[in-house]
């Protein structure tokens, strides 16, 4: 896959391209600190070389990178983030964004130092995690921080979608079907059905091993206990597993068993609900505060794919794009409704 060319197409059509560094469970910013201690922030640092190569590849393909997102969840020191941001600025990156879930004082100090060095526009957005460890974050507190620092950063809080719980099949420690998985005996994907959603195949010692290999976006598979011939290009051996996204079209096949995500999806990461209407209500409340909320985002797109089969929000069919669009529209509508109500109140008052 030619990633720079694909992202350049998005960039040319007005879509911002942001690369993220860090995540929960990683040591990215600890490693960044160690590299800076060893090499400094100049062009001899492997970080400098790699991020310069990344930017060059994007520019040469006709695109660019709008910002590097700091999802620092392992080494919350303002000095480390300021040093890394300074390196990025020296390379030619025009902006960074923040993605905090805690430690407002550290992010505030980092913001103020970067404003002093590079101006009010260098930190262009704050992607506030309002799910999981940040479920009870109040965007107003962070909005006040932005305003008092004199930053022009956009305030963009995010919420999670519904999740398969107690974990999608590949996260079950016993390697047995979890509550989110249903087994269908003596079936395989219908040979004459729509196979465009096939993602991959592999050979495994057992169906449980195949289940343990599943990754995000794979919503069902069939496992062959005996050889199976479904026609040209669809001949499978004992131990073969074939993985798909979307909704299964099962056909009778005594040689195989099918497995699909079919229940157990619910809100486990937000303080309130995780259906589109829940997000719309939350964004409407956030947008009505003193400090403006400028947008929103959703966490865990893969879970939209995984939970379509369950229909926890009443959706049906296999159109993942429709569900994803519903979440997008919920954010837009929540922010717009709040703005509309504020304008109406203002007109009545004055």
Which keywords apply here?
350 residues; alpha/beta; Hepatocyte Growth Factor; six-stranded parallel sheet; five-stranded antiparallel sheet; 21% strand; GH18 domain-containing protein
Task: Explain what the structure shows.
It comes from Chitinophaga oryziterrae. This is GH18 domain-containing protein. The protein is of the alpha/beta class and 350 residues long. It has a domain at 166-263: 3-Layer(bba) Sandwich (Hepatocyte Growth Factor). It contains ten helices and 15 strands. Strands 1-2-3-4-5-15 form a six-stranded parallel β-sheet. Strand 10 and strand 11 form a beta hairpin. Helix 5 (104-118) packs parallel to helix 6 and helix 8 (276-287) runs parallel beside helix 10. The longest helix has 30 residues, at 320-349. The protein is globular, with a radius of gyration of 24 Å. Mean pLDDT is 88; it is low at 339-350.
Give the SSE map.
Layout: H1 3-12, E1 18-21, H2 28-39, H3 46-60, E2 67-70, H4 78-91, E3 96-98, H5 104-118, E4 123-129, H6 139-149, E5 154-160, E6 163-164, E7 181-189, E8 198-203, H7 207-212, E9 220-224, E10 228-229, E11 235-236, E12 240-244, E13 250-261, E14 265-266, H8 276-287, E15 297-299, H9 301-307, H10 320-349
Parallel strand pairs: 1-2, 2-3, 3-4, 4-5, 5-15
Antiparallel strand pairs: 6-14, 7-13, 8-12, 9-12, 9-13, 10-11
Helix pairs in contact: 1-3, 2-4, 4-5, 5-6, 8-10
Organism: Chitinophaga oryziterrae
Protein name: GH18 domain-containing protein
């Amino acid at each position: 896959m030619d990633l720079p060319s694909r992202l350049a197409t998005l960039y040319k059509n007005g879509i911002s391209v942001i690369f993220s560094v860090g995540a929960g469970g990683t040591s990215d910013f600890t490693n960044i600190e160690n590299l800076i201690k060893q090499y400094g922030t100049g062009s001899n640092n492997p970080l400098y070389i790699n991020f310069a190569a990344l930017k060059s590849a994007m520019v040469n393909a006709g695109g660019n990178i709008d910002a590097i997102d700091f999802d620092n969840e392992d080494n919350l020191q303002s000095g480390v983030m300021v040093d890394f941001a300074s390196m990025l600025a020296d390379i030619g990156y025009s902006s960074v964004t923040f993605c905090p879930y805690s430690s407002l004082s550290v992010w505030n100090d980092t913001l103020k130092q970067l404003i002093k060095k590079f101006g009010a526009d260098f930190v262009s957005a704050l992607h506030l995690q309002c799910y999981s460890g940040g479920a009870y974050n109040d965007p107003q507190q962070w909005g006040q921080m932005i305003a008092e620092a004199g930053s022009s950063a956009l305030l963009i809080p995010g919420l999670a979608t519904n999740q398969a719980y107690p974990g999608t099949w590949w996260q079950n420690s016993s390697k047995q079907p979890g509550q989110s998985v249903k087994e269908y005996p003596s079936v395989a994907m219908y040979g004459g059905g729509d196979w465009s959603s096939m993602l991959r195949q592999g050979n495994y010692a057992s169906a449980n091993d195949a289940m343990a290999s599943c990754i995000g976006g794979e919503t069902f598979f069939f496992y062959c206990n005996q050889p199976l011939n479904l026609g040209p290009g669809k001949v499978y051996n004992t131990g073969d597993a074939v993985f798909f996204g979307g909704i299964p079209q099962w056909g009778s096949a005594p040689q195989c068993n099918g497995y699909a995500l079919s229940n157990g999806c619910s809100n486990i990461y937000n303080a309130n609900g995780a259906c589109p209407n829940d997000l719309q209500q939350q964004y409407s409340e956030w947008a009505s505060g003193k400090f403006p909320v400028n947008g929103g985002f959703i966490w865990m797109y893969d879970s939209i794919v995984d939970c379509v089969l369950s229909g926890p929000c009443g959706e049906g069919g296999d159109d993942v794009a429709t569900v994803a669009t519903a979440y997008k529209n919920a954010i837009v509508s929540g922010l717009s409704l709040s703005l509309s109500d504020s304008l109406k109140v203002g007109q009545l008052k004055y």
